[in-house]
Amino acid sequence: MSTTAADAEEDNPWEQVLRKLLPAGAPLPDEDHLDYSIAVEYQGPPIPYQVPRVDPLNLDSLSVRTSSLVSIADDKDLSVPVVAPITGAKISKFSRLRNSSVNVLVQDSTSSRPQIEKAAVNGENEEGESEQVGNRREGEEDEALVGRNEGKRVNVVKFNAPTPGDSETEEDGYSSTQSSAAADALGPTSVVRKESRKKRVCSRCGKRNRLKGREACLVCDARYCSNCLLKAMGSMPEGRKCVSCIGHPIDELKRSSLGKCSRILSKVCSPLEVRQIMKAEKECAANQLRPEQLIVNGRPLRQEELAEVLGCRSPPQNLKPGKYWYDKDSGLWGKEGKKPDRIISSKLNVGGKLPLDASNGNTKVYINGREITKIELRVLKLAKVQCPRDTHFWVYDDGSYEEEGQNKIKGNIWGKASTRFICWLFSLPAPPGNPFVPKEDTTAFSLRSVPEYLEQGRVQKLLLLGLEGSGTSTIFKQAKFLYGNKFTPEELQNIKVMIQSNMYKYLSMLLEGRERFEEEALLEKLTTAVNAEESTSEVEANQHCIYSINQRSKHFSDWLLDIMATGDLDAFFPAATREYAPIVDEFWKDPAIQETYKRREELHLPDVAKYFLNQAVEISSNEYEPSEKDILYAEGVTKSNGLAFMEFSFDDRSPMSEIYNEESECLPPLAKYQLIRIDSKGLHDGCKWLEMFEDMRAVIFCVALSDYDQMWAYGSGPCCNKMLASRDIFETLVRHPCFRDAPFVLLLNKYDAFEDKINQVPLSICEWFGEFSPVRAHNNNQTLAHQAYYYVAVKFKELYYSISGRKLFVWQTRARERASVDEAFKYIREVLKWDDEKDDNTYGITGGDSFYSTEISSSPYIRTE
Ligand SMILES: Nc1nc2c(ncn2[C@@H]2O[C@H](COP(=O)(O)OP(=O)(O)OP(=O)(O)O)[C@@H](O)[C@H]2O)c(=O)[nH]1
Ligand SMILES: [Ca+2]
């Protein structure tokens, strides 16, 4: 494996990914047909990739109700029970819109009106609570609030655009370390608190207590304080419902909260009761999906069809009310008008006939009668399926396919790992056997008495990126040690070879540097000698300097440098490593080399070189097994392919988990994550291909704090301050439409190096931090580093806020320390929880009280430290 080759590669990441997946030396799938390779498509502007979007609507000219329609059209949540008595004028306005889902909605509000109306009336709030406030960005019509049209609830669309002087703005302004810290301690909850103030009023006793939580009724959203909760809800045979709401269907927006205990409930009930209530809440008949809430291929399901869907071997998980399409031959399943979303059991007799335009494709290529989407076509092409226009394929559930009418299986689209991988990248479903999506853990499954479809969370993808040297590799590796699978023997073997060849690379860099330094030093000596008019013999005696080595070493040096120059290192190493180990060791200890090492920055030699060269003999041995520290420090482990990913889950030990521990059947399923690290090289060139990371749950951006005085250049580009380079990439990401909805977490890494540096080099050396003026109360590094850290964090927060109007989450790390990375991921998980809740809150469902918010506010993680 050649790290140097990998380093030199400026390939499109696609090719790198494919290269990894294909056998060594195999041609890339599209090498001959680059015209349809994704690599090519992403290189030149304009981007042919269609980003799903809703046509812009003019909010001013449309009524509030229109906004709620738009949010449904945007596919945020099809479960929202909305009836919109739309005027003729508005219908024509809508039907003129290109977006088919909008048209669908118009049908919605006319054809299936009675049923939806029912849902809305059922969801009516007895208490007449009408306050629903969103905290969304101004002008983001697709994020507008959805409220109720019928009943006493009023549709309120309100944008909480922070105004100058708003506490949010103050919080983020840098005044002093303390106030920033305090502001950050409030964290996202401060927003939640503002919104839910009204909801702090107990629906029963009418008392208001800002500090105490409220539990909400799943049906009518009435909120009760801990004193009134049991009186209002009784024994909760169907979970958290007012006594008068028992038997009524739940508010669909709360479906994801079913069975998730809140802190207030666990306070007023014993663990055993809580368990029973949560079980009832999830399993009782009244809270289940009703068949007519699911429309499959244009037809509402019947009771027995729903049972078939939910009871099959691989049911669609986390099913919400809405319109879906289902291809019973291949098992593909998706939301109406969208690309396939998952593969479920095939051959289920549910819903109507699969319509040609089920997924709104426009490719003139058909699978089982459905015109496929652009993205599917791309995957087919990558899988080398010939698909000219007007091809009709017949695809079976095992992935084998044939052309319609030809009666001959042509191949299997899932046959290649690369296809499955590409599907995974594109968020297209791939069948089981996908190496990247772990199979259902059957033991965990059998423990659960809860219907699986209510429980299963989908994998949440976390994108980790940062400029070269910021530490993303280190963080990734730490995460793997902490939560991931062990390295396989093959992986370890590769890492071993990599470490060995890295060692030779470091050595050759030193040798090359030595030569240069020696020449320079001798030339200088010579110049001085000539100027001083010394005799020739004296000059000759001066043919030696601190960088000089003996003749034998010189031979080896020349030989090694020759090999490196031909780029043929892999041909010699590691086969030769053992043989040369003593020489490497001897070299490394040579004073000339040590002198050279002192000037390593000039040579761009990483400081880990020392760590590995110190162990030259051990590393060169056949028996060498890289330690975890070696792996952590090794360059290139997650690098050579441009993209690395791993899957993991956290054991969630939040405060409420105590009650779950009593009985394993109530254990909530572990949240599954995929951590995806992209090589920072992919971040240049305008980040065009980032579009393939469309559905990231969060973006984790990593910046090395200690970069503030470093210079940096990309390729042959101009040199600039490395912190500024990081900032620019960060900005590009924040502006990227793909990540518009993803929360950002900034990891300020290398805090240790930062602490060391901050007293030697002022932060203001970086022009962006020019106004940093530390309060010099105590003249020690720690406080200074602390203040500087907050200053940097606030600079990023301000930048982020100015672009997105949102709050940036910041955490500091010392990635070389495992515990620090563990803390960072705990923080990230809290941010995700908060983000989940925030969405709920925006739609006016759970408010700030139930479902986690209390934990968040007392969480040690939601702050900037
Ligand atoms: N002192 C210190 N060094 C760190 C820290 N995190 C990473 N490093 C080192 O910084 C160097 C660069 O880190 P990498 O993990 O390779 O970061 P990266 O450049 O983003 O990742 P690649 O692009 O794969 O190289 C490595 O030598 C790390 O060991 C940290 O918190 N403190
Ligand atoms: Ca690196």
Mean pLDDT: 71
Strand content: 5-15%
Helical content (DSSP H or I, runs of 4+): 40-55%
* Uncertain stretches of 5 or more adjacent residues: 1-11, 28-44, 56-197, 433-456, 653-666, 841-865
Based on secondary structure, the structural category is alpha/beta
Shape: globular
Distance between the termini: 39 Å
Keywords: GTP-binding, Nucleotide-binding, Transducer
Protein name: Extra-large guanine nucleotide-binding protein 3-like
Organism: Hevea brasiliensis
InterPro entries: Gprotein_alpha_su (IPR001019), GproteinA_insert (IPR011025), P-loop_NTPase (IPR027417)
Commentary on this structure:
The structure is a single chain. This protein is an alpha/beta fold. The chain is built from 35 helices and 20 strands. A 6-stranded mixed sheet has the order 14-15-13-16-19-20, sandwiched between helices. Strands 4-3-5-6-7 form a 5-stranded mixed sheet, with no helix packed on it. A 5-stranded mixed sheet has the order 9-8-10-11-12, with no helix packed on it. A hairpin with a 6-residue loop joins strand 1 and strand 2. Helix 15 packs antiparallel against helix 16, helix 19 (472-483) packs across helix 34 (818-842) and helix 20 (489-531) packs across helix 22. 42% of the residues are buried. The structure holds guanosine-5'-triphosphate (GTP) and calcium ion.
